[in-house]
């Protein structure tokens, strides 16, 4: 029997696991993130299940000499050193389709909040008691052009919702599927074309070497003036400094960001400062820009929350259990390597 441990396990996830008592008996679990500081406590485990807060770097993985499978409870896997796993025959499974409806709905929640200034209106009434409409005029989505970057399962759901708002949809994807475009009523275009004509751009690609800074200083000012950018994918897809400059110079109408570049460091920066750790200058610039975003009236920042519904979390746990069970009978599924 494989020795298994779940990291970053929440009380809600534990309650879901309790519905599978036979499996629950086989595992250990902790609320801790797996890190270089605590990895020496877990060197005997053959299967580890983590969320995105655990950083499985080469230094961490080297300590796990018995490791055979990493079952990440996420779609993304940029928190795992893929090359090390490949070189050391460590399999990685993910949860590729746990919450496409969840993330797509949140994408539009952010977009509507941004474009109709919902938060601004709420904050004004709550903090000042003023019912003035000054500064609260928004824009409607009707017949606006939505540019979807990445037409995977989440991107498709975003397109379906957009059609309900009578938006015109164009999309960029590395692997276009013309039959899907015909079925859902959208058109594939190249990235430059998408940037130049979209009233709203929504990002739904995974984060990897090819998508790092896909939106950057060389192309962000090629976007349509007044365009809105929505990012519920990964922070590193957008170059932070470029986004800041485009907003500061009033080229973009605004942005809604559920993810930030270096967001892990943003969460840990107080500890870094308390311990007087040196922060590389480029990383420091990103951290400062992230803070500036939070204070801008035309930017909405949320704490990587798009996945966070009861239904999606249940699906994540259930599919992770299935990934591990299939690995145990030598029929692994949902492998990314």
Structural class: alpha/beta
Biggest sheet: strands, sense, closure? 7 strands, parallel
**Contiguous helical run count:** 13
- Uncertain segments: 265-277
Measured distance between first and last alpha carbons: 23 Å
Percent of sequence in beta strands = 5-15%
What is the helix fraction of residues, given as a range? 25-40%
Radius of gyration: 21 Å
How many beta-strand segments? Answer: 12
Shape category: globular
Average residue-wise pLDDT:
91
Keywords:
single chain; 337 residues; globular; 5-stranded parallel beta sheet
What does this structure look like?
With 337 residues, the chain is of the alpha/beta class. 39% of the residues lie in helices and 13% in strands. The protein is built from 13 helices and twelve strands. The chain has helices at 11-17, 21-24, 58-63, 82-87, 100-115, 118-128, 153-164, 178-184, 191-197, 240-248, 263-274, 281-295, 310-328, and strands at 4-6, 27-29, 47-50, 69-72, 91-93, 145-149, 168-172, 187-188, 200-203, 228-231, 254-257, 299-301. The strands form two sheets. Strands 8-7-6-9-10-11-12 form a seven-stranded parallel sheet, sandwiched between helices. The chain has a five-stranded parallel sheet with strand order 2-1-3-4-5. Helix 4 (82-87) links the parallel strand 4 (69-72) and strand 5 (91-93). The chain starts with a strand and ends in a 9-residue tail after the last helix. The relative contact order is 0.13. Residues 265-277 have low confidence and may be disordered.
């Amino acid at each position: 029997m494989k020795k298994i441990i779940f990291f970053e396990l929440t009380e809600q996830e534990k309650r879901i696991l309790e519905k599978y008592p036979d499996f629950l008996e086989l595992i250990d679990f902790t609320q801790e993130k797996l890190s270089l500081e605590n990895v020496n406590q877990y060197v005997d485990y053959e299967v580890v299940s983590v969320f995105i807060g655990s950083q499985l770097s080469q230094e961490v993985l080297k300590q796990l000499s018995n490791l055979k499978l990493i079952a990440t409870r996420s779609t993304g896997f940029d928190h795992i050193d893929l090359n090390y796993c490949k070189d050391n025959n460590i399999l990685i499974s993910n949860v590729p389709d746990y919450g496409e409806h969840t993330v797509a709905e949140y994408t539009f929640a952010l977009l509507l909040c941004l474009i109709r200034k919902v938060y601004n209106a709420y904050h004004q009434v709550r903090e000042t008691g003023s019912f003035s409409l000054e500064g609260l005029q928004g824009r409607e989505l009707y017949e606006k052009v939505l540019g979807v970057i990445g037409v995977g399962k989440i991107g498709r759901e975003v397109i379906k919702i957009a059609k309900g708002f009578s938006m015109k949809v164009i999309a960029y994807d590395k692997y276009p599927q013309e039959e899907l475009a015909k079925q859902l009523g959208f058109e594939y275009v190249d990235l430059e074309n998408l940037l130049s004509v979209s009233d709203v751009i929504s990002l739904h690609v995974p984060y990897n070497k090819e998508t790092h800074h896909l939106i950057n200083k060389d192309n962000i000012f090629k976007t349509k003036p007044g365009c809105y950018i929505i990012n519920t994918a990964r922070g590193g897809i957008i170059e932070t400094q470029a986004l800041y400059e485009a907003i500061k110079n009033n080229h973009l109408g605004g942005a809604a960001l559920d993810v930030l570049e270096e967001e892990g460091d943003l969460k840990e920066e107080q500890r870094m400062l308390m311990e007087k750790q040196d922060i590389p200058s480029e990383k420091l610039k990103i951290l400062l820009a992230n803070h500036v975003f939070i204070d801008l009236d035309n930017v909405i920042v949320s704490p990587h929350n798009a996945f966070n519904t009861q239904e999606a979390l249940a699906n994540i746990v259930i599919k992770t259990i299935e990934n591990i069970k299939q690995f145990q009978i030598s029929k692994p599924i949902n492998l990314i390597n």
